[in-house]
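ok trying this again, last paste got cut off
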Amino acid sequence: MDPDAIAEEQARVAAFRARIGAPALIDVHTHFMPERLLAKVWAYFDAAGPLVGREWPVTYRADEQRRLAVLRGFGVRAFTAMLYPHKPGMARSLNDWAADFAARTPDCLHTATFHAEPGAADDVRRALDQGARVFKCHLQVGGFDPRDPLLDEVWGLLAEARVPVVTHCGSGPVPGPFTGPGPIGAVLERHPKLRLVVAHLGMPEYADFLALAERHTEVMLDTTMAFTHFVEEAASYPREALPRLAALGDRVLLGTDFPNIPYTYADALEALETRTGLGEPWLRAVCHDNAARIFGLGVGR
């Protein structure tokens, strides 16, 4: 990462914040994880693996402290450490790492995860006891059915605790056996109080996940990668659905996928601004106020 390029980008992000009147940004979809695991994730992107399907250069490839400095330099006051197991037996150790990361990184919203496996409820209960404030569920990478009976207690625990679960349940960039609105919709029918955050606006099933949010008042959406040139080429957001997105403005949250994005952070913010045309109050709510309210961070700071 070139320091001059980062400085220029910081100026662009600061100008964006000024235009929308946001004192800072809150990003609910950023990735921090053990370095060895992150290296494997980057290698997967480099190889354009089957869950990627296209060339995907990682823009912010740097050590942990440098990545934290860059994110904070963009005016991000709170962020997550989205991490996820690709097989059983990983969740507890990932959660222990995340608990330590949150303890040494006060501006990180303590993040945890789970997999469909015996003991999943114990893992979630343990993470909640450690102070987890948000969970990540990746149905595409994990390859599990959210309706699995092994997860019924998990969803119940999270619904009762009122802890948001950022869930990759849409079928982008490629479909998985349990992606799409059907499987996770069945979970919501059983657990209507679950605070589900649909990652990537549910891409590419945008309209279906809008409908899910319209039916379930606890469902939220995050903007990760949506409206960027990278995504618009393959899964353009339907412009006729923008009024529905506007109407859900208090339940839309900023997400970016930092650092694993093939463009700049400023690009993502500017695309959200120019391609939605939904105006400054909506953008301020999405980029700061909604998450500040949900996580009790104080809207005015």
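PB: full thing came through this time. The radius of gyration is 18 Å.
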